[in-house]
Fold this sequence. Notes:
15% strand; three-stranded antiparallel sheet
Amino acid sequence: METKEKKTPKKDNWEYKDRSYYLLGNKTPLTYTIMSKHTARYSCVWFDPEKGYERELRYATNQKSIFVDEQKGSATLAHIVFDEGHLYVKKEKRNLQEFLAKHPHNGVLFAEFDKVVEAVDQFDYLEMEIAAMNMAYEMDIDKAEAILRVEKGSSVTELSSKELKRDLLLFAKQQPALLLDLAQDENVELRNFAIRSVEANIVRLDDDQRTFKWAANGRKLMTVPFDENPYSAMAAWFKTDEGLEVYKSINKKLK
């Protein structure tokens, strides 16, 4: 007579603890409600790797399971509301925590606060901020002006050397990733040079933004390719043999 093998009960690895969640993104509304059940308009399902198919989710305060196919009787639904971008769920509300863990918007609209992950992210950001500020502190004035012009436009021409360094340090602190990126862009300084040559009335850009000419005699220097920023185009042109000679000539006049 064959004996049936007894199935080993699946171990429950759920960690009972209070959990905090926060909305992702820069804008935080006073209140934000996420969907708590599956509808024809909004899909709220989770793929079960053991069963091999998607299962419909529903948060009900009077049910132990978050899966509709395991819920029995009437379901008491409840809103899931983030106040000022945050949601705190006590360990006793396991079904809500499990629902949030499997929610299709987890990692998209909201995330669980993790002290270890947050600490790693903060360390990486601070490290990047220090690198950006060190670079800004050691940067020469011409390059500082070129980078700040991306952020401030032509107003940088009115700043003194100390004001440029101050604003660059503030820029490095507020947007370290952007500063590091701009510092590695070889065309930033050439774009700034092109802008300065126009501001100094050495070179003229026609009103149609398509042609650069010598301001003194109106002789054409270059035509801006269609749908390109004129100063970016001129920066690239300065790298050509013809453009390099013009660059040298403009540089003498600017000094």
